[in-house]
Amino acid sequence: MTTALVDNGVNVEALLGAREAFADAPEIAQFQWRSTVSWVGGTHSRGEVQTFHGFGDEQTHRSRFAFDIDHPLQFAAQDNGITPVEYVLVALGGCLTAGIAAVAQQRGIQLRSVQASVSAEMDLHGILGADPDVRNGFSSVRVDYRIDADATPAEIEALVAQSQKRSAVYDILTNPTAVTVTVS
Amino acid sequence: MRHTTTVVVGAGHSGLAMSRHLAARSIDHVVLERGGVAHSWRTQRWDSLRLLTPNWMTRLPGFVYRGDDPEGHLGAPEVARLIEDYAAESAAPVLTGTSVTALSADTGGYTVRTDRGTWRARSVVAATGLTVPVRPALPVPTDVVTVHAADYRNPGRLPTGGVLVVGASASGVQIAEELRRSGRDVTLAVGEHVRMPRTYRGRDILWWMDASGLLDVPYDAVEDLARVRNLPSMQLVGGRRTLDLNALTALGVRLTGRLVGIQAGRAQFSGSLPNVCALADLKLGRLLDTIDDWADRAGIVAEPAQRYAPTAVPTPALTARLGAGAIESIVWATGMRADLSWLEADVVDRRGRAVHDGGVTASPGLYLMGLPFLRRRRSTLIDGAGADAHDLAEHLAGHLHTAVRRAS
Predict the structure, then answer these.
(1) Is B257's Cβ below 8 Å from some Cβ in A?
(2) What is the ipTM of this complex?
(3) Which site among B51, B248, B312, B361 is 20 to 30 Å from B70 CA-CA?
(4) Residue A161 and residue B278: Cβ atoms within 8 Å?
(5) Which of A175, A177, A179 to mutate against chain B (most B CBs within 10 Å)?
(6) Do residues B187 and B248 make contact, with C-beta atoms less than 8 angstroms apart?
(7) Phi and psi for A93 in degrees, rounded to 5?
(8) pLDDT tens across B259-303, in order?
């Protein structure tokens, strides 16, 4: 296994460089992520993401990204987009998979294919207010990876474990977060 | 104002090992100690605690274990006595009951202020050890008794109700076990941990780590030094048995994820328990692979290689009620840190942690000892003080030499 021949398309040097830069100027590590969500009609909204703050400055994506959020026909909705909870699954799978690519690159492991199946269990009694003992959110989340890579099964398991250890969305889902909602 | 060449702060195993090496180089010095020799071994250990390392590993410069139980594990009072005997045998120039309050550097050396007068020295070695209990700042309900592992003594001093032990390092697993055996309902909050079998292939796990050179891995050969220096202690207990999470589950200890908050009188636990267990299992597997490879190459005759069952992860509770009839006490097994408040700001970072290169600070003539993975993996153990003191005494002697040359 030689690092030089491995290319997962992740610039690990840049990531490690950022960690070193943070040591000298810890304040530039403070980021703010943003989204605006506008109601379209019914349960349909459109979320947009363009700017964020980090590295000590205002930053912008290459373009404005837009996402339709709705509920399926089975909920008597128009199904103009996936549900908010499904965006959470997408976010978790995307975060863990990016982490796997980065850790694999750093460890000199060439990936050929990576696929996550993300699923979450939810009891609708919660959001419908039908049973106060049932929470609104997921009762559990499962992620199952199929990974084809130049590595032993133990090395692949270690990649997946390390990715969880460093994942923002995994942390957001497994630990409490203070949330403040205001009206202005 | 009194003068000496080197002030050593702390008369524990690290400071005394340094004293021994300084004496061997005829470097005039004094060892300042806030309490008595081996102070924290007398004041910050619970009753049943035994050293994690076997007696044969209790090695210091000029001292090896000569007793009749090389595989035994000393209790805290015995460790204190051993260190005291070592100080006497070394005729170490220890000044007890002397707390260092401030250190300042100037041309030519250091001014060391204490509660019993001021010293001038050309070099200083901070060998204070880890003496300050670290505990998370969480709003614990007032009717819940809390105690840090450094102040915990035995189950009898805690309420008889449920106990939450926070942290699954050596102290956390040991305290959880004895509280469970006392008949209490015990919850163990588990973050990242280092799983270890006590014996492997018929020998102590530390024998393997010692013999294979794993304990001698130098600090500058480690890819992520910050990570290894912050690792919790190995899940070991002095004695012959393995005390991992599976052993605790079998005893009836309830495992949960890391304690991440307290809200409305309920403890909140992370949902990351499966992953921290997977990380520890995988890490143990890699350690055993390394040991097996070495045993093959070195031609070690031992019992056959084996692998352990993965940590059985329960469906963990995400919250638990704190207070009467539920969890009535909390034991913080959340680690200790060094008290470096008396050092000048330029050798500590913005979070108060020492900045050093293998114990050598940016302030010429100022050294640190007794910190995890200071110069090698062994640095974390009593057994590591000798090699660290050797290396740093050599550096210190070089510093004195060049400082004299520069002055003349």
Answers:
(1) yes
(2) 0.86
(3) B248
(4) yes
(5) A175
(6) no
(7) -65, -40
(8) 999 999 999 999 999 999 999 999 999 999 999 999 999 999 999
